[in-house]
Amino acid sequence: MRYQISGKQIDIGEALQAHVRSEIDEVMEKYSARPTDALAVFSKSGFEYACECVVHLSSGLSVQARGTAPEIYAAFDQANSRMEKQLRRYKRRLKDHHKERPQPVELSSAASYILAGADGEDAEEPADLTPMIIAEMETRIPSLSVGEAVMQMELAGAPVLVFRNERQDTGVNIVYRRDDGNIGWIDPNAAS
């Protein structure tokens, strides 16, 4: 497994890197034997350290968590325990999907944009309604089943996930968390 352990404007020592590697290895060995790479980023805000961890699995799913604490090791341990909790919660579902999927998830490229928003309620309406593009980047759209998409969205803690439905060749689909706590699924080609 590849590791990328870094700090935002702080130095990360060899002891912390070794701790991160051993702890992530232990969790991945316990719950998922097929991780491809792990990313851990440490930062400091005031008196508190933050650790953001992301582990990509060979199935195309990713597990991510964030931890904050007054000490850097405690911040990582908190993020790691949250990742472990996510994997424990979805262990049975991950095993079932791995048995069905002999090949890794296929990813396709798409353009992604960040648009300027209104500065508040008192902001004047622009003369033309063409939004200003602040940033442009490339994003990946996975080909998943609806169940895998819901699981990926929950593992990532994201409110929405765009994916290609591999069961039906219907193009781009969306799953999202509704205000009532349920999951919504948008399949634009299902409507006649």
UniProtKB/TrEMBL annotation:
Q: Which residues form a coiled coil?
A: 73-100
Q: What residue range is the signal peptide?
A: none
Coiled coil keyword on record: yes
Record GO cellular component, one term: cytosolic small ribosomal subunit
Question: Which Pfam family is an annotated match for this chain, by its short name?
Answer: Ribosomal_S30AE
Q: Which Gene3D superfamilies does this chain map to?
A: Ribosome hibernation promotion factor-like, Sigma 54 modulation/S30EA ribosomal protein, C-terminal domain
Record's subcellular location = Cytoplasm
Keyword tags: Coiled coil, Cytoplasm, Translation regulation
Spell out the molecular function terms from Gene Ontology: ribosomal small subunit binding
- Subunit field text: Interacts with 100S ribosomes.
For this chain, the family text in UniProt reads:
Belongs to the HPF/YfiA ribosome-associated protein family. Long HPF subfamily.
Q: What does this protein do?
A: Required for dimerization of active 70S ribosomes into 100S ribosomes in stationary phase; 100S ribosomes are translationally inactive and sometimes present during exponential growth.
Q: What is this protein called?
A: Ribosome hibernation promoting factor
**Origin organism of this chain?**
Mesobaculum littorinae
